[in-house]
Amino acid sequence: MNSESQLDETAETSEGTVTREVPAPAVPSESAEVDHPTALCLANFNAWYGDFQALHRVTLNVPECQVTAFIGPSGCGKSTLLRWANRMNDNIPTARANGTMTLRGVDVLSRQMDVVDLRRRVGMVFQKPNPFPKSIYDNVAFGPRLHLKITRSDLDDLVEWSLKKAAVWNEVKDRLRKPALGLSGGQQQRLCIARAIAVGPEVMLMDEPCSALDPASTASIEDLIHELKKQYTIVIVTHNMQQAARVSDQTAFFFEGRVIEAGPTTGIFTRPENKQTEDYVSGKFG
Ligand SMILES: Nc1ncnc2c1ncn2[C@@H]1O[C@H](COP(=O)(O)OP(=O)(O)O)[C@@H](O)[C@H]1O
Ligand SMILES: [Mg+2]
């Protein structure tokens, strides 16, 4: 099976598998739409692993240059959604999806989509920092070498710029040729962010980026997220409600493969419309 053929673009819908009504997610107000146009747009998006449906009719707008938090208990489909947004699920033979997922209007699920280019535009940072077993410099230079025709001195500048953007330059500037795996966990995570930034992404997907980090490193990543959203659209999955409240502008609450409620973070945390959302954000389950 080639990587494209797992996509399900047939007329199959989830109608047959949806068994109960769910409330429609909040739609961002018009003024939010003007200030922050939609970067990633999902409408009636469904995803499966084999016969198991992991996401049901997800409708959600991720606004540009904002931080959107995905919250919800384990197994409710948050990572599945992120993985579809840069087509990482192409590597899972049983994974398929239908419905709408667009990045600035371009169909992410299309068989014609250039997946390498998509992954440049949509960067990903994982729970466990995953630097390549290479030098600090080579980690950041990896993507630009792959994607850009670039001179040696421009590459040096880009590596420095990316490490500065990721707020790790001062800690690594004297050891750029040393192995990345020698850095602390928090430094490795910021290096991975620098590696993603170096190829000029539009969207940064962060899947529990702080859950393997100590409080000081977590604080530095949160500060960094504040800085990065001036330029990038950020989606962060977090199980830490305080973190979601601190870093995000929008929050989407996932439960059993559905987006139960989405909207401005303050509203979700202080005046949730849905009982399940309220129970989750107040720590009654999850
Ligand atoms: N590769 C896979 N094959 C089969 N099922 C999977 C796979 N990855 C995830 N799932 C299932 O899909 C559901 C959603 O998983 P996931 O998106 O990882 O949830 P979350 O990130 O919210 O914890 C879970 O029931 C999980 O077991
Ligand atoms: Mg996950």
Q: Which keywords apply here?
A:
single chain, six-stranded mixed sheet, globular, 23% strand, four-stranded antiparallel sheet, 286 residues, 11 helices, binds magnesium ion, Rossmann fold, binds adenosine-5'-diphosphate, alpha/beta
In short:
The protein is α/β, with parallel strands linked by helices and 286 residues long.
The CATH superfamily of the domain at 63-85 and 117-281 turns out to be P-loop containing nucleotide triphosphate hydrolases
Instruction: Give the strand line-up of the largest sheet.
Output: 6-7-8-3-9-10
The first-level CATH class name of the domain at 63-85 and 117-281 = Alpha Beta
Strand content: 15-25%
| Number of E-type strands | 10
The CATH architecture name of the domain at 63-85 and 117-281 reads 3-Layer(aba) Sandwich
What string, H for helix and E for strand, traces the elements in order?
HEEEHEEHEHHHHEHEHEEHH
The largest β sheet comes out as: 6 strands, mixed
- Residues in helices, as a percent range: 25-40%
Which structural category do the helix and sheet elements fall into?
A: alpha/beta
Cofactors, ions, other ligands: adenosine-5'-diphosphate, magnesium ion
How many distinct helices?
Answer: 11
Rg is: 19 Å
Q: Would you give the CATH topology of the domain at 63-85 and 117-281?
A: Rossmann fold
The termini sit apart by: 37 Å
